Amino acid sequence: MSIFVHVEGGFWRRVSEVVKSEKRMNVVRLLLKYGISVREDGLYIGDKVKVTVSSVAEEAQVDRRIVLETLKRILSDSYLREFFYNLRPAGPSLVSVARVLGYRCLVVEIHEDRPGILAWVASALAEKGINILQVVAEDPNIYREPKLYVVVSKPVPGEVIEKILQHPAVKRVTLS
Fold it and tell me: Please, which of 27, 28, 31, 86 could form a disulfide with 36 given CB 3.0 to 4.6 Å?
């Protein structure tokens, strides 16, 4: 999943104005990707798990000083400080381990973001009695080609995929 920053929106405009470099933007993307919160005393996943500056630097492929400067800039801006202070991870994703658990994962790619895509997919699955266990929807303001990941309890018949593909915003559906 490659992450992309859409800078025209209000949030991304603010981030861009504050961090002012592509390397620091890489750090911000990483914080968002993992739900890492920024506090005066460090980086956290949840309330208690500390994350090292070095590990963020390594993952973002930048020097530690870039991470420290990014954190300093985030903390200097009241809006970004509040946002990143309260940021939390969404929880474990079953997308990569669905098969290990005996589940399947539908990956729905779209042409454009529109209301009703998730409802359409859920309806097509419900008609065949297929239980949805988890949904992960990538934010179209963050991802260049956002995807909808739907982890389901059992195999998905071809007619369900055909039904999902009838939605005008759906480009492609794959099953893993």
Answer: 31
Residue with tokens 């005008």: 168
Say if residues 60 and 27 touch (Cβ distance below 8 Å).
yes
- Same domain, yes or no, for 100 and 131? yes
The tally of domains found in the chain comes to 2
- The tokens describing 53, both together, are 């500056």
43: buried, middle or exposed (CB in 10 Å: 19+, 13-18, 0-12)? buried
Q: Which tokens go with 58?
A: 């390594």
Global pTM?
Answer: 0.77
Q: What is the pLDDT of residues 80-107, one digit of tens each?
A: 999 999 999 988 899 999 999 999 999 9
Residue pair 155/162 in contact by the 8 Å Cβ criterion: no
Phi and psi at 72, nearest 5°, equal -60, -45
Residues 68, 37, single domain; the answer is: yes
